[in-house]
Amino acid sequence: MSRELFWLAITLVVTVITNFIPGGRVLILPELFVALMILLYWAAKPGAELDKPVAVQATGPGDDKVHTWPHLVRSEFLCAIFITLGLILWSLVVDAPLEEPANPTRTPNPSKAPWYFLGLQEMLVFFDPWHAGVVLPTFIIVGLMAIPYIDINPAGNGYYAYESRKYEILTFFLGFHILWVSLIIIGTFLRGPGWNWFWPWEVWDSHKIEALTNVNLHYIFGIRSEAGAIIFGAVVVLGYFVVGTAAMYWAIVRMKGQEFMHRWGMPRFVLTSFLFLNLMSVVIKMVLRHAGNIMYVWQTPWINF
Predict the structure, then answer these.
(1) What span, in angstroms and rounded, lies between the C-alpha atoms of 292 and 145?
(2) Which pLDDT band holds residue 48 (cuts at 50, 70, 90)?
(3) What are the residue ranges of helices labelled H in 94-225?
(4) Contact at 8 Å (CB) between 181 and 260?
(5) What whole-number distance in Å separates Cα of residue 188 and Cα of residue 115?
(6) Please, what's the b/e burial string for 40-78 (b: 16 or more CB within 10 A of its CB; e: otherwise)?
(7) Minimal CA–CA distance to 153: which of 75, 263, 229?
(8) Are residues 246 and 281 in the same domain?
(9) Which residues are CB-contacts of 90 (< 8 A; sequence separation ≥ 6)?
(10) Same domain, 137 and 210
(11) Same domain for 77 and 123?
(12) Which pLDDT belongs to residue 245?
């Protein structure tokens, strides 16, 4: 069968399924798409060209480079097939979280942002709106923009191996997969009416009442005056950054050596330390709120942390 006849047959089959079979667009078309990808993968026969030895010019001692095709493309294609198949099965088993048409006279409880903003909405529980919606997203953007300027590691240009970039990969894993994705999961599955916390086995009861026992950190230490609260909070927050920066400097020198710190430079180190400590402050603040009912660490008449 020629290539033109093959794609004409595929087009006719998709047209028939989409227009003439009830539910075919939802139930049959995705499976046909996966079958087509598997067929194309089989027809391409990746790896067949490896039967004959290929002369590769070495670029240096211990050269271990491999071709993008088929090694990388084959793995990516298989991952795409498996992920697509998993999404299809998930969509068949779990109903889409659709609600009734929007009604301006009836606000849903809770009113949730789109999933990609649920992390910010969840952070409103722990921080002031200006801090959760402006300061922290700005730090995220600035941190991502600063990565090419603060990363001086020449190893792994063009690829990211764990051995050469273990701390960078672990930091990204903590900031994105553990922190950001977990906030989205919490906002989607564990926040119910009134933005109260509901475990998966609990019924979303709109009449659930949670006792408001949150207090500011200075109350625990017996400080009641406004001036005392401002001074106490400033000492705690500034002390956290000073001690944290000193601890990071000691840890990096211990792991990398003083020569690495000299090559890295103090401006890069201070910026990296500031961004990393802000990342960890989100985790610490969440732990204080859930474990100790701490509302704010630093309370002032203008801003709160």
Answers:
(1) 35
(2) very low
(3) 118-123, 129-130, 136-150, 166-172, 181-185, 217-220
(4) no
(5) 7
(6) eeeeeebeeeeeeeeeeeeeeeeeeeeeeebeeeeeebe
(7) 263
(8) yes
(9) none
(10) yes
(11) no
(12) 93
Place of tokens 């969440």: 286
Residues 6 or more apart whose CB falls under 8 angstroms from that of 37 comprise: 77, 80, 81, 84
Confidence of residue 76 (pLDDT cuts 50, 70, 90): confident
Place 20 in a pLDDT band, splitting at 50, 70 and 90: low
DSSP structural state of residue 203: -
Closest to 120 measured CA to CA, from 107, 108, 110, 135:
135
Residue 222 near residue 303 (C-beta atoms within 8 A): no
CA gap 186, 180 in Å, rounded: 10
In the predicted structure, residue 243 carries a pLDDT above the cut 90? yes
Domain that holds residue 86: 3-47+68-93
Q: Can you give the pTM of this predicted structure?
A: 0.66
Which residue shows structure tokens 């999961």?
A: 185
136, two tokens: 């922290």
Do 36 and 174 belong to one domain?
no
**Identity of residue 194:** G
Question: What single DSSP character describes residue 112?
Answer: -
How many structural domains does the chain have? 2
Q: What is the chain's length?
A: 305
Q: Which amino acid is at 290?
A: H
Residue corresponding to tokens 């670029």: 59
* Band (223; pLDDT cuts 50, 70, 90): confident
Q: Which two tokens stand for residue 66?
A: 């491999």
- Residue 19's pLDDT is 60
Q: What band does 235 get if pLDDT is binned at 50, 70 and 90? A: very high
In tens, the pLDDT along 127-143 reads 888 888 888 888 888 88
Q: What distance in Å separates the CA atoms of residue 73 and residue 79, rounded to the nearest whole number?
A: 10
